[in-house]
Amino acid sequence: MGGGRVLSPVLLVGAGLGEATCGILYLASYLRRGGIEAFVRLYDGDETEAEVIRSFEALVRRVRPKLVGISLKWFHHVDRALLIARTLRKIDPSIRVVVGGNSASYWWRELHAFDCIDHVVLGDGERPLLALCQGEDAPPNCVRRDPDGRARRLPLEYVQGATNTEDVFYSHFDEMFLSQLDLNSFSGWVAPGKGCGENCLYCGGARGNQKAAFGRAKPFLRSEESVRRDHQEIAGKTWQMRYDFAGSSAEFLGSTWAGVDLSRHCCTYFLWGVPRLELVEALSNTFERVYMVVDIGCFSEKQRLEQMGRGLLKPCAKDRELLELIEGCRRYKNLGVEISGIGGLPFASEATLVEELALVQRIIDQDCVVGYQRLESQPGALVTEHPARFDMVSEARTFNEFLDFFERREPGDVSVPMIRFRDAKLEAAVQRTSEQVDALAWKHRDSRRNLDVNGRTRLVNTASSPRRFSLGDWLGSHRAPVKVAREEVTVLRSVDGITLSCAPTVSPRRFSDPTLVQGDDGAILLAALAAFERPTTVSSAVSHLGSKARLDPHSAREVIDHLVEGRFLQPG
């Protein structure tokens, strides 16, 4: 340890809306084991600059952090990361502001030029962040500033791999969260491994950038013991497990599940290729419900094979192999499959567009969900950096172009810069096909969810058992005023994981929070759910709500339909 002052407590936050990346949870766990009092703000619902300022004023009052780490993993959060950094600098200039993550590592030079940022951590962050907190004079993987003021990137000293990750795992979940809302926002992410060995032309996290940003060109599996510790730590605190890694096998995952009962958990697995049926069987046998998202690059086999042949796309299945997988998954009744691909990739033609539509229809005919999006610009991706090679145009390439794009978005706008074909006729055809695929995919999704409800339909409450918290515990003392902190919040979760938090005794006139259903509205939702504790016809429930909640029949049906749509109520 160096002679600098120890920086503790520490606050770690994400740069985007919603749930932050699981990386800040691994970091906070590591810091806690290193003697640093680390806290996380996992959920962020602030949409406007004024809301961001209010939130961080309250967070700083509560935590009194000496250092705040901002996770900038995703490039479309760069403007928000800078807003948070500027806000912190105004609130308390003594707070050390650190940014890290994939996008921070890629844009290290540009970010280091902002005076609201003290440190940029490159690559893996556990050891560098602990060194910063412990006051080391030369923490590894941190951008240095030369005497002339220029930023300098030294070789990475800390690179995680298969032989040095035993000390990276989840721990201290009972201590790091600032509210029950934060803890309940955790979606169960576990990282079986890290890195990528492929060079997909559309991806900013491909092998070349992994080597530059993280110092490794090959992916690796973490130690079985570390991943097992993850499962042991979080199994009692989350309703599902989520994975996103190509190299996991049934044998590896089975060893990391040993001793942990996951039979009542759900699982979502984002696969970068077609899995072996042994893995599918292991997932189905371990979890109550499984949802697999299988990425096939694009829906045209001809286009897919062209890219693979040029070394521009990871290994993907041929159509026959994909359809065989879907057929093989049918034997597992608790397993759902989504097939995901990107539209508008290079080498598109009239023929490939016809293939796209045909495969999408075949997949939907098998009752599989289709995930689809147009090609977007990602910093560092081959097609973003060199669109002319593919006769395409990117809407953003440089740091300033990306930053300008995101700064101009209105609150709630989630658009990103796109890559389009230079040939106007081809671009128009690609866009038409994209709109057709979108229409097919959403029509199918809606048909799977739609339930024809009439007065004779018997429904039952399928939400999780209600949990009750004080408002102060649910929102955290930094968000809940003392005058309402003791009021009760009832929290339920639908089968799809949608959370409903009702505070019927808290009038919006006294206190208002966008995450809550308050006052009479909260009481009505709870009454409606209670009416279906046992299988009950809709007409009976409407009568019950008329007498108990004084709802007219039309309003009662609206409430019931709302709960059916959220899958809190299902056929009984």
What does this protein structure show overall?
The strands form eight sheets. This protein has a five-stranded parallel beta sheet, sandwiched between helices. A five-stranded parallel beta sheet has the order 12-13-14-15-16. A four-stranded mixed beta sheet has the order 20-21-22-23. The relative contact order is 0.08. The protein has 22 helices and 25 strands. The longest helix has 26 residues. It starts with 9 loop residues before the first strand and ends with a strand. Helix content is 39%, strand content 17%. The mean pLDDT is 95. By secondary structure, the chain is α/β, with parallel strands linked by helices.
Give me some keywords for this one.
572 residues, alpha/beta, five-stranded parallel β-sheet, 22 helices, 25 strands, 39% helix
SSE arrangement:
Blueprint: E1 10-14, E2 18-19, H1 23-33, E3 38-41, E4 43-44, H2 49-63, E5 67-71, H3 78-91, E6 96-100, H4 102-106, H5 108-112, E7 119-120, H6 126-133, E8 144-145, E9 151-152, H7 173-176, H8 180-185, E10 193-194, H9 207-214, E11 220-221, H10 224-234, E12 240-244, H11 250-257, E13 266-271, H12 277-286, E14 289-295, H13 301-309, H14 319-329, E15 335-343, H15 350-365, E16 369-374, H16 382-385, E17 392-394, H17 399-407, E18 419-421, H18 424-449, E19 458-461, E20 467-470, H19 471-475, E21 488-493, E22 499-503, E23 517-518, H20 519-530, E24 536-537, H21 538-548, H22 553-565, E25 569-571
Parallel strand pairs: 1-3, 1-5, 5-6, 6-7, 12-13, 13-14, 14-15, 15-16, 22-23
Antiparallel strand pairs: 2-4, 8-9, 10-11, 17-18, 19-24, 19-25, 20-21, 21-22
Helix pairs in contact: 1-6, 2-3, 10-11, 15-18, 20-22, 21-22
